[in-house]
Specification:
With 335 residues, this protein is mainly alpha-helical. Helix content is 42%, strand content 6%. It has one domain. It has helices at 14-19, 24-30, 34-37, 45-53, 75-82, 102-108, 128-141, 153-163, 170-183, 192-202, 222-227, 284-328; strands at 56-58, 61-66, 69-72, 230-233, 236-239. Strand 2 (61-66) and strand 3 form a beta hairpin.
Length: 335
């Protein structure tokens, strides 16, 4: 387990997205995910790997001994660390939701349902609030290390329950992800910030333990919106090239009254100026090029993740150098 990769943790501020005109934060707050999503660290990579190395499952709850402390990922523990709810009546499995149909859920998230390729559940063509929820699912709620541009069936299921405001048992979600990481060979380790907070709350001795603080690449904010192909037009974030919609009652894609639209706002023409012709819908070729641009953006995000891993390696090297200096009796201020 010493070589197991830790999925680079992400953090965000829901209030920032609210102030920027997004409506998805209220859906995540309904699931009581606010504190979990806004955790900032630091995190302790060696202790995280140690936890996973000795972890066992007891009736679906992962537990492990860390430096003499028994750590259990049960309801009270996750509630204290991140206010994660374990009171939901449903567990996120497809058989619990009779009205769940992945194609319908995926289609309802699309900016242009007619031109969408439904053979691959690519996230690049989604409405902006759905796009952010998809990103948060892939990086934070059920985190994985690769292929964030394509949604899995589990991702679409979580999208369904979040947008339908169905309260679920997030303790089960966390334990399911940790169990898969434990038993999958070379599986990357999720929830670095959550586990580290649990270690702190449990009184694990952190003296001398290497810790990693978050970098800019760990924070979901303006730069991530640009990577997704969004720009700010007046007071709203819109996708580049979207066709302005016909004015209609202001509701978001979840049917919630809102001034937040997933299309650019209408702009009144200046007096005395000829109104510009309405842009034409994208041709199939243009849509293909936009899909390729989404793929390039995803590659850029993947490179950013690799860069974060490189920074972690430098932190490791710095820690080893300090240990070597201490062993050789070299003062810290010497080269």
């Amino acid at each position: 387990y010493a070589g197991r990769r830790i999925i680079p943790p992400k953090t965000l501020k829901l209030d920032w997205f609210k102030n920027e005109g997004f409506s998805f934060p209220t859906l995540l707050e309904h699931q009581e995910l606010g504190k979990f999503l806004e955790m900032e660290g630091p995190y302790y990579p060696e202790l995280i790997r140690l936890f996973l190395c000795f972890a066992t499952s007891n009736e679906g709850i992962m537990q492990s001994m860390v430096k003499g402390k028994m750590i259990k990922l049960d309801g009270p523990t996750l509630k204290a660390a991140a206010r994660l709810s374990s009171t939901g009546r449903e567990k996120p499995q497809t058989f619990n939701f009779g009205d769940f149909e992945e194609l319908t859920t995926f289609r309802d998230c699309q900016r242009n349902p007619v031109n969408t390729n439904y053979e691959k559940f690519l996230a690049g063509g989604m409405k902006k609030n759905s796009r952010l929820i998809s990103f948060i699912i892939a990086w934070m709620l059920k985190p994985r290390l690769h292929n964030h541009a394509q949604m899995s069936r589990d991702d679409i299921l979580l999208m369904h329950v979040i947008k339908k405001k169905i309260k679920i048992d997030w303790v089960s979600v966390v334990n399911d992800c940790m169990c898969k990481a434990r038993w999958k060979e070379d599986g990357p380790i999720p929830y670095a910030l959550l586990l580290s907070k649990i270690f702190e709350n449990a009184g694990v001795d952190l003296t001398g333990e290497r810790k990693i603080v978050l970098h800019a690449s760990n924070k979901i904010e303006k730069s991530f919106l640009h990577h997704m192909g969004m720009l700010k037009q007046e007071d709203k974030w819109v996708f580049k090239g979207d066709v302005p919609p016909t004015p209609e009652p202001a509701t978001d894609e979840d049917g919630v009254p809102s001034h937040d639209e997933d299309q650019p706002p209408q702009v009144e023409a200046e007096p005395g100026r000829e109104p510009e012709a309405e842009p034409k819908p994208f041709s199939p070729f243009e849509q293909i090029m936009l899909n390729k641009l989404d793929a390039v953006m995803e590659m850029s995000r993947r490179h950013e993740s690799l860069f974060s891993g490189i920074l972690d390696k430098f932190d490791d090297l710095d820690h080893e150098v300090k240990l070597l200096k201490t062993h050789l009796g070299i003062p810290e201020d010497e080269d």
